[in-house]
Amino acid sequence: MTPIELSTRRRVTGLTSDEFARLFVTIENKVNGENAQWDAADVESWEIVGPPATADQHLVDTLGAANEFVATLANQIYHAAMPVADGTRLVAYGDNLTFWAEHPGFGGMPYALWNIAALQAAEWIRKETGVICELEAHHPLM
Fold first, then answer.
1. What three-state secondary structure class fits 89?
2. Hey, how many other C-beta atoms are within 10 angstroms of the C-beta on 75?
3. pTM, whole model, 2 decimals?
C-alpha cells in the first residue's frame, strides 16, 4: 500500500491517525493473537514513507474490516429505526469512552465508525421514506 493510498483510505474512513492505529492494533491482535505495538506516530510516518512489509497486508485487512463493520452496523441501525416518523433521531457519539460504555461489545472500535454507520442509515431512511433523521449526540461521560 502506498503512503498516499493509506492516508486517503484512512481519511475516507473518517478516522484520525490515533483512531486508525487503535483499530489496526485491535484487529491485528484478534487475527494474529500478537501484541501489536503500533501507534498514531507509526501511522503518520507510514503516510509519508509507506508501511513496513510486515504491516502492509494487515492494513488492507483493517480497512476492509472497517468498511464491512460500517456497512453491517448501518444495516442494523437502519432496521432498528424502521418504521420512522418525522422527528426520528439516530444516536451519534463524541468520544470513545461514551460509545464503549453504551456498547461494551464494541470496545476497541472507534466511535467514528458508528457515526459513519448512523449517517449511512439516515441516508438510506431519507431515500426510502423521505424522512430526514437527525443525529442526536450523546454527551461525553467525563
1. strand
2. 14
3. 0.76
3-56 tens-digit pLDDT: 999 888 888 877 888 888 888 877 766 655 566 677 888 888 989 998 888 788
The CA–CA distances, whole Å, from 58 to 25, 42, 69, 89, 113 equal: 10, 14, 16, 36, 18
Residue showing cell 451519534: 92
How distant, in Å, are the alpha carbons of 26, 36, 110 from that of 114? 16, 24, 8
Report domain 3-137's class: mainly alpha
> What is the domain partition of the chain in residue ranges?
3-137
% helix, strand, coil for the chain, step of 5: 65, 5, 25
Residue count of the chain? 142
